[in-house]
Design goal:
By secondary structure, this protein is mostly beta strands. The protein contains one helix and 21 strands. The strands form five sheets. The chain has a five-stranded mixed β-sheet, with no helix packed on it. A five-stranded antiparallel β-sheet has the order 2-3-10-5-8, with no helix packed on it. The protein is globular and about 55 Å long. The relative contact order is 0.16.
């Protein structure tokens, strides 16, 4: 019996490793939320025991929506390594190779995946801490003071990706002129921008603000507002 079970396991593993990766727009666990000339934004949902194996054409950022643990692997690797993620975890990945994820736990897994159509969105650049041109960090660490306002940023060449939390009546100031903004709520959002704009968004929505924001963004809720802020510099012709 043990030999039979071992053969079944090896057969299943080999089958998974030789299966072709899906194209992301046809993969059923990826739901397209937003697309324009700069980004494609997908909601990814995996119920218990479900898995995905996709190849990303573009570099991409993953925003995790709740504390979780997932099995993840690159093409050609075994599907055994498990990784822990916290709510609002943000990680940058390079496109090209196929990657897989599997949910081995009892709860649903959700993330928002943002693909960047501009290849200049990268961690490669001049690193001030080393004085060299090389690859920088690909993730944002947890906040030092999680119960206060914070704004922690990952530099990605022509994009800044930030983990932001606003307490009641805290504001997000205006970006530099010409900057396009994409906001992914990690908690429910209730904000105003001046006297004319009042916006409510649920966790996991995609809010393309573009370059049209004219006032500071204020959290009007009594609860902290936490979100991923993606700031894209104007495209160069």
């Amino acid at each position: 019996m043990r030999i039979l079970l071992g053969l079944i396991f090896c057969t299943v593993l080999a089958s998974a490793q030789t299966s072709a990766p899906d194209e992301i727009t046809r993969e059923p666990h990826h739901r397209l939320l937003l697309q324009n000339d700069q980004v494609r934004v997908f909601e990814v949902t995996l119920r218990p025991t479900e898995h995905v194996f996709v190849r990303h054409q573009y570099n991409f950022l993953v925003v995790t929506l709740q504390d979780c643990e997932m099995v993840m692997w690159n093409e050609g690797e075994s599907e055994i390594a498990s990784f822990r993620f916290n709510q609002a975890d943000m990680r940058f990945f390079y496109g090209g190779s196929a990657r897989g994820m599997r949910n081995d736990h009892s709860g649903e897994y959700r993330n928002i995946t943002i693909e960047f159509l501009n290849p200049k969105v990268t961690t490669f650049g001049y690193q001030a801490n080393t004085g060299k041109w090389e690859y920088g960090g690909s993730a944002i660490g947890p906040p030092v003071y999680p119960n206060k306002k914070f704004h922690s940023t990952l530099r990605l060449g022509v994009v800044d990706a930030s983990d932001v939390q606003l307490l009641q009546r805290d504001v997000l100031e205006l970006p530099d002129k010409g900057t396009f903004e994409l906001l992914i709520p990690v908690t429910d959002l209730d904000v105003t921008a001046g006297s004319d704009l009042h916006v409510r968004k649920a966790a996991g929505d995609a809010w393309w603000i573009g370059d049209g924001r004219k006032a500071d963004l204020m959290n009007t809720s009594t609860d902290p507002a936490r979100f991923a802020l993606i700031e894209l510099k104007p495209l160069q012709n």
